[in-house]
Design a protein that fits this description.
Chain A has 204 residues and is mostly helical. Chain A contains eight helices and three strands, in the order ααβααββαααα. In chain A, α3 crosses α4. Chain A binds a DNA duplex (30 and 30 nucleotides) through α4.
Chain lengths: 204, 204
Amino acid sequence: MTKPGNGDAQKVSDGQLFELLRYSHIFASVIREILEIKLLNEVTPNSLTLSQFHLLKLISLNGKHQVGQVADFLGVSPPAATKNIDKLEGLGLVYRRQSKGDRRATLLSSSAKGRRLVEKYETLKAERLTPVINAFSTDELDQLARWLERFSLALLHAEESGEGLCFRCSAYFEEQCPVTHLHEGCPYQKVRGSHVTTTGEKEA
Amino acid sequence: MTKPGNGDAQKVSDGQLFELLRYSHIFASVIREILEIKLLNEVTPNSLTLSQFHLLKLISLNGKHQVGQVADFLGVSPPAATKNIDKLEGLGLVYRRQSKGDRRATLLSSSAKGRRLVEKYETLKAERLTPVINAFSTDELDQLARWLERFSLALLHAEESGEGLCFRCSAYFEEQCPVTHLHEGCPYQKVRGSHVTTTGEKEA
DNA sequence: GTAGAATATTTAACGGAGTTAATTACTAAC
DNA sequence: GTTAGTAATTAACTCCGTTAAATATTCTAC
């Protein structure tokens, strides 16, 4: 792994490459395990999965999605989405209702309880980031965010077999998704406009 | 979430905070899904889990670990480690042998096949990183790695309830683990010295 | 030196989340 | 109006994790 002469353009040394591999992995693991899974378990006694939470968040942002859409969004099969929705519905976090236009379709909307949960999670997540923010200057934070974006895009574009590629923003979406041209029909796109405010649908 | 007045020190704007949350999540997801899971599935027709691969990697780096140690390392229960080892052993990637000193203990070592797999994965991973490397200057890559480290450390230190905290380097380890004082007895530490070369144990 | 506590691993029983295939209900095409 | 297609669900299964119990070995202490 840290052998000499790995064949590639020798732009970076083996040591640099190792550091990059090491810290990108560690960063990814720490974000996922500490900032996401651990926090989620603290916020929900009923311990939701990350998938289930992302589902809840998407539904909170737009109360007009149907099951198939959110399945695509999560990157899972429709039956898996159904089961996740069952669980969220059982907890009173989301509701199902039949679509008027197409009576096969089920529309999903969040309850006030569901939206409160999303908001609580996001607030706490931002709080936990405070020590991180304090470890950087404002300019550094800006630069870091841009580099993370550049890194992710470079990786994703290289991979573009055109398949089910997605930026995996998990509802941290922006007006203009940078990978839309790779993956048409992203549910995030359908949610555009409601942006980041916790504007749910009607209450039940 | 992007509400005004989130209470915290107003060092960063809500927009900045959102960008940071968005891109740290996206980066973490892309690393995990594209650079790790997807790549692993391409390399192994028998589709190993990330856990199983990390286990194999650890064993490849040091052929003297016992089951309980690698269970700690993976952050799973001993029975889970046993089953993962069963699978790797069934594929001829690792071997079990009884410890001479303590006949309760099982020592684990990798086969040449196992080490080849690890090496192949790491080589391909480095290759996939080429477009990323080309998207940055050498100095930027250095800076990025250091920032990822600083970010991860800040997050981990803030969290330090002293529990099972770990840097989650998954065997991308360095001589001096920055969180050792938080988590004594890390299996990575026991592996120190063999560093990153693919130096396994005896062959069977 | 042997009884009893502690430790290392495995087995057994089970749960949760994912999969594919089949079913049900509805819509759309011709 | 029959037929093909689509949305969602149910059924049957797999995989990876869990805790509790079983087994084998070592350590402690009288």
